[in-house]
Amino acid sequence: MPVNILDYYSAAEWNAIKSETSRHPTPCIVVDLSIVERKYRDLNTRFPFASIYYAVKANPAVEVLELLRDLGSKFDIASRYELDRVLSLGISPDRISYGNTIKKRSDIKYFYDKGVRLFATDSEPDLRNIAREAPGARVFCRILTEGSETADWPLSRKFGCHPDMAIDLLLLARDLGLTPAGISFHVGSQQREIGTWDSAIAKVRYICNYLEDEGIKLQLINMGGGFPAHYLGKINSMDVYSEEITRYLKEDFGDDLPEIILEPGRSMVGEAGVIASEVILVSKKSSTGLDRWLYLDAGKFNGLIETWDESIKYPLYSEARGEFCEDFIIAGPTCDSQDIMYEFYRNPLPSYIKPGDRVYWLSCGAYTASYASVEFNGFPPIPVYFVRS
Ligand SMILES: *Cc1c(COP(=O)(O)O)cnc(C)c1O
Fold first, then answer.
1. Which of 43, 51, 76 for mutating ligand 1's site (highest number of atoms within 8 Å of CB)?
2. For position 157, what pLDDT does the model report?
3. Distance of CA 84 to the CA centre of its chain
4. Distance between CA 229 and CA 46 in Å, rounded?
5. pTM of model > 0.85
6. Contact at 8 Å (CB) between 329 and 239?
7. 270-284 b/e with 16+ CB inside 10 Å = b?
8. pLDDT of 322 above 80
9. Higher model confidence: residue 153 or residue 274?
10. DSSP designation for 380
11. Sign of the C-alpha dihedral, residues 327, 328, 331, 336?
């Protein structure tokens, strides 16, 4: 079945987005800031007890950051460059968390000198660097979680440590003069299995119990991101996510809930963006070949890197004429044979689609623009425009 645009955008949103794309050459991204605003307010209402730290890496555009600043969001930052940008927008350092567990000692000092006092860690060498360069800071320790099979973009292997190591690190943090503030986890981006939060929260409960016996009462649980955006395929609504996760927290912590932090990235901005691309060529590899290849001017290296391993299945939409649809192999414009977005996963588009027709990639507001190469094959980074529907 071809994609029905109204499953993804209201008529007003689509009109605003499409008319902006029509003013620009392809490829380009158009982000509807009204959708970002709605997502922020919605999450705030569903988790009234939590602080929202927007994960800047998902879409670091100044327009997005200013909007979230004005809505009262806090920010999860991964590098000194993101920090500079956020501070330059007048956001105070007490609204910032340094969430990257992989950092240079000089970067820790940089954050501390700028006033940031909340740091993530998951290893002893990093913790010792924090103690040296950020004396007295609040630290939270990231633990490993399960769920990489049910997340479309897993994040727990490179980051996090075993819960027993987290206990040792938080005890060491106290001995080093830091404030052992809490535990963090990330169940994996685009996490479809809500039960993964349950097992992660149970691990946090175990750690809290252990540390209470050692005289440390943890003050915060950072539950990371992982909430989904609407791509192809079924996902639960945010209602179900928030109800279930709140229930898990109540089961394990009752009324004695520590401060809860959420770090949404994808769910905050993903649905707000659309990539407009144009068909370059439609071709076959032999006269009897059954597969038709559709080459577009947007590809893995200018915005669509999350099609890697066909992980994220973006809905493709075309207004080309013709009632018949066909499954194409979809590839990008560069001279790299990795620049194929979908080969096994087929996405029906009109059979009569031809060079010059536009193909819209829906739900492309997260992990696209800032994830593109700077000039591979000479193609410039994909430009981004903003509208309000
Ligand atoms: C990437 C990241 C996030 C955002 O995750 P989403 O799944 O996009 O919501 C949150 N926290 C940390 C530490 C991250 O690295």
1. 76
2. 82
3. 20
4. 16
5. yes
6. no
7. bbbbbbbbbbbebee
8. no
9. 274
10. P
11. positive
Apex CA 232: angle with CA 226 and CA 238, to 5°?
40
Tokens coding 353: 């689609």
Q: Which domains does the chain have, with CATH numbers?
A: 60-264 (3.20.20.10), 270-387 (2.40.37.10)
How confident is the model at residue 321, as a pLDDT? 78
Mutate to test the pocket of ligand 1, among 68, 189, 220, 364 (most ligand atoms within 8 A of CB): 189
User: Of how many residues is the chain composed?
Assistant: 389
* Structure confidence at residue 117 (pLDDT): 98
For the chain, what percent of residues have pLDDT higher than 70? 100
**pLDDT of 156 higher than 80:** no
- The string of pLDDT tens digits covering residues 2-40 is 899 999 999 999 999 999 999 999 999 999 999 999 999
For position 306, what pLDDT does the model report? Answer: 97
Instruction: Report pLDDT for 275.
Output: 98
Report the alpha-carbon distance of residue 126 to residue 132 in Å, rounded. Answer: 10
Closest CA to 121 of 232, 261, 222: 222
Pairing relation of β-strands 151-153 and 179-184? unpaired
Cα separations in angstroms, 282 against 174, 285, 360: 63, 11, 16
CA–centroid distance, 225 to ligand 1, in Å, is 5
Q: Supply the Cα-derived Rg of the chain in whole angstroms.
A: 22
On average, the pLDDT of the chain sits at 96
Ligand 1: residues with CB < 6 A are 55, 57-58, 76, 99, 186, 189, 224-227, 263-267
Q: Where are the alpha helices (DSSP H) in the chain?
A: 11-21, 33-46, 62-71, 80-88, 105-113, 124-133, 163-175, 195-213, 238-253, 266-269
* pLDDT tens profile 30-49: 999 999 999 999 999 999 99
Going from the C-alpha of 12 to that of each of 39, 241, 255, 271, the distances in angstroms are: 17, 27, 42, 15
Residue pair 262/246 in contact (Cβ under 8 Å)? The answer is no
Question: What are 335-360's pLDDT values in tens digits?
Answer: 999 999 999 987 889 999 999 999 99
Among candidates 207, 205, 311, which has minimal Cα distance to 249?
205
Q: Contact, 16 vs 371, CB < 8 A?
A: no
For residues 187-214, give the mean pLDDT: 97
Q: How far, in Å, is the centroid of ligand 1 from the Cα of 142?
A: 12
